[in-house]
Specification:
Layout lengths: L5 E3 L5 E2 L2 E3 L2 H10 L7 E5 L5 E7 L8 E7 L10 E6 L5 H12 L3 E6 L9 H17 L7 E2 L3 E2 H8 L8 E7 L7 H8 L6 E7 L7 H9 L3 E3 L10 H18 L4
Parallel strand pairs: 1-4, 7-8, 7-12, 8-9, 8-10, 11-12, 11-13
Antiparallel strand pairs: 2-3, 3-6, 4-5, 5-6
Helix pairs in contact: 2-3, 2-7, 5-7
Bound molecules: S-adenosylmethionine.
Length: about 260
């Protein structure tokens, strides 16, 4: 079957077997993708459910709708949830991180204000990150749109928001630091030797790096300090490099044929 476009819809748009498309979705499907009446696409709720749907014509005053034809079963999610704690980089750098790391499989973004963070984002910026995450979810054919939490201080992120300590699921937490000896790749091979149910957290620092007290606090919260190699990566590159390694480890454990 030809590649089908994906569009994320809210559950409120679904009535019986019809989806009421918003003006923005109608514009995107009709004007940008040039879909015609009866053309098919995938509608997804961003929480794991997808359907094969068909564009149908309704009364002009009501705009276009899509009819649900059948559930669309597919599995492209990673086997373990990844939480990415990122000290916000300058400018629009976090947009690039959200786009690339959504494609790679991150399930929760935890933007943090560290000691050396310069950016304090507006609510509009946070909304823009969430929109980028939806676009990247559709583009990468994932089923679940990652959550983007409101920014908090690094200490608060460690204390309040991190993986539930009472959870029976194992958790592995890594903080990336420049000029370290133990590579994340080695840590992953040591910690993940077979397919497991685990939660994985990765923290990456800002342009100026983590401060020594931040690294100490992270260690107290169960993080291992890891390297991404001997070259110093930009604050925007490091999250993508780290998440790529975790995704590669999880993918190859769950699908040995890869
Ligand atoms: N100015 C810092 C220094 O010279 O130590 C470098 C900070 S780096 C631009 C930004 C962040 O990316 C770091 O805090 C770290 O989390 C991550 N990072 C960059 N290169 C890394 C590497 N080779 N290994 C591990 N983490 C790295």
């Amino acid at each position: 079957m030809a590649q089908l476009q994906r569009v994320t819809v809210s559950p409120l748009q679904i009535q019986d077997d019809c989806i009421n498309l918003t003006a923005e979705q109608q514009h995107y499907l009709g004007r940008v993708l040039r879909l015609q009446i009866n053309d098919r696409f995938i509608a997804m709720d961003g929480q794991g459910q997808s359907w094969l749907v068909q564009l149908i014509c309704s009364l002009p005053a009501e705009g276009h709708q899509a009819r649900i034809l059948e559930p669309w079963a597919t599995q492209t999610e990673l086997t373990c949830p990844i939480t990415l704690l990122t000290a916000l980089p300058k400018g629009n750098g976090f947009e690039e991180i959200v786009r690339a790391c959504t494609e790679l499989g991150v399930s929760t973004f935890m933007p943090v204000i560290s000691d050396r963070t310069l950016l304090h984002p507006s609510p509009q910026k946070i909304e823009r990150w969430r929109k980028i995450a939806i676009e990247a979810t559709e583009q990468s054919e994932r089923q679940v749109t990652p959550q983007i939490l409101d920014p908090v201080s690094f200490t608060r992120a460690l204390e309040n928001h991190l993986l539930n300590p009472l959870s029976p699921v194992q958790s592995f937490k890594y903080i990336c630091g420049a000029r370290q000896d133990f590579h994340l790749w080695q840590a992953l091979h040591h910690d993940l030797q077979q397919p497991v149910q685990a939660e994985i957290a990765i923290a990456t620092g800002p342009e100026g790096g983590w401060t020594a007290p931040e690294l100490d606090t992270a260690i107290q919260h169960g993080f291992q300090i890891v390297s991404l190699g001997q070259r110093i990566l930009r604050a925007i590159t490091a999250p993508t490099a780290a998440v790529s390694l975790v995704a590669a480890r999880l993918d190859t454990l769950s699908r040995p044929e890869f």
